[in-house]
Amino acid sequence: TGAITIDPGYKNTGSCKSEITFLNGEEGVLRYRGYTIEDLAEKATFLEVSYLLIFGELPTASQLEKFENDIRKYTMVSEEMKSIIDGFPRTAHPMGVLSSLTSALTAFNPKSVNVENEKELYEAVCKTIGKFLVIATWTFRKRMGYPLNYYDNTKGYVENFMRLMFELPTGPYKVDPKVVAALDKLFILHADHEQNCSTSTVRIVGSSHAGLFASISAGVSALWGPLHGGANQAVLEMLQQIHDNGGDVAKFVLKAKDKNDPFRLMGFGHRVYKNFDPRAKIIKKAADDVLGTLGVEDPLLDIAKQLEKVALEDEYFKARNLYPNVDFYSGIIYRAMGIPVEMFTVLFAIGRLPGWIAQWKEMRLNKEPIGRPRQVYTGSPLRAFKEVKDR
Ligand code: CMC
Asked: What is the ipTM of this complex?
């Protein structure tokens, strides 16, 4: 073997060839299977985009109808899963519970999918998309102490998300179609982002031929961290902190620049985008629209806008090409919809699920070898073993 090049964080290492997502960080371009994120966010639905990512083509009307019906068929979750949820303390973070529940699904779906068999693969895809939504919302119900509920087959996927979250036994939950439309768009914007940390995790776990649920559960854990999907929760907490400190935006920008202070501007910066994150542009506009149509006034939106303005004019941020990313404004929209902050990253996971599935499928169908990076050993040279009595 030749010399090993170390690339911490894989900043310049490609791990695979992929046909799914195109990203140009310098120009701020994002496309799924050749379609621009702007077109998809404006004109498609989340399940349509999921189909596109996973199967490579936009579905025809009948393919889409079948896909929606097939997902619906798999939204029942085993009764025993409920007792697993019961075992968690109510204070548990929903992302930890979601990762555990996704892993627990392997117990009730033990058969590993034969990826070469189109029908089996299709069923596994529908099953994952169906069940994941239900268990994701159950993490919230557990936290709130609400009784667990079931998918309503007469309603769409995103509408069901709101119902599954908020419907109480006292009566039906009226879902605002504007909220559904905005959420659908947000899920599309999160649906894939090539070889990010959680997706790479899903591919690498899957590369050992671990099953789909096991691979997705690892992806959920990777997404949870505040440098990745967890940033959407961290942004809102930061904005709240700025607000509670009298709204002094400049002070926090100064803190973020201080190398002796671990504080970073959450929702700023990106490994690949060295220009505006195109998703952030769409979300910023959506934040104005959603808050406007819902008649919500949120002082945190004003703080976010001021913070963005001050940071974008600052030499430190300019020199490092640090722009707002997808997580910067999404939390403000979620908050306006009544979604509590600890659920924000769960929403990211629901959105990212089709991307994880598409990437897992591509990796398996391409027959990629097991993911196994090398290292350069920097530990002790050879040493003679000493008996415990001689140490
Ligand atoms: N605030 C202050 N300084 C920053 C920030 C920030 N948010 N982000 C990067 N920098 C600085 C960093 O200190 C470094 O400075 P220097 O060159 O002087 O040492 C330089 O910019 C390059 O940063 P890096 O940490 O080497 O870049 P990276 O590619 O390893 O990290 C990142 C990318 C997204 C983890 C990072 O920008 C960050 O921590 N941002 C805040 C967390 C966040 O918003 N994450 C969400 C990412 S987007 C969606 C997602 O993945 O979920």
From this structure: 0.97
CB of 228 within 6 A of ligand 1: the answer is yes
Q: Please give the distance, rounded to the nearest whole angstrom, from the Cα atom of residue 232 to the centre of ligand 1.
A: 14
Residues 181 and 258 in one domain: no
Q: Which residue has the tokens 């509408």?
A: 159
Sign (positive or negative) of CA dihedral 380, 385, 390, 391: positive
Write the DSSP symbol of residue 244.
H
Contact 139, 90 (CB under 8 A): no
The residue annotated as part of the active site, out of 184, 277, 314, 327, is: 327
Does 218 lie in the same domain as 235? no
What is the 8-class DSSP label of residue 191?
Answer: S
Asked whether the CA dihedral 222, 227, 228, 234 is positive or negative, the reply is positive
268 lines ligand 1 (CB under 6 A): yes
Q: Tell me whether residue 243 is one of the annotated catalytic residues.
A: no
Question: Domain containing 291 — which CATH number?
Answer: 1.10.230.10
**In the chain, beta strands by DSSP E:** 21-24, 29-32, 35-36
Q: Give percent of the chain with pLDDT exceeding 90.
A: 94
Strand partners, 32: 21, 35
Q: List the Cα angle 175/278/216 in 5-degree steps.
A: 65
Is residue 8 one of the residues assigned to a domain? no
Residues 348-391: tens digit of each pLDDT: 999 999 999 999 999 999 999 999 999 999 999 999 999 999 99
Quick one: DSSP state of residue 367?
T
Query: Of residues 93, 192, 270, 314, which has the active-site annotation?
Result: 270
327 belongs to the catalytic site: yes
Would 380 be classed as within a structural domain? no
Is residue 275 within 8 A of residue 321, CB to CB? The reply is: yes
Q: How many Cα atoms sit within 13 Å of 284 on the Cβ side? A: 17
What's the CA gap between 391 and 383, in Å, rounded? 13
The answer to whether residue 372 is domain-embedded is no
- 165 and 96 both lie in a single domain: yes
Given a contact cutoff of 8 angstroms between Cβ atoms, the answer to whether 133 and 161 are in contact is yes
CB atoms within 10 A of CB 42: 11
Residues shown for the chain? 391
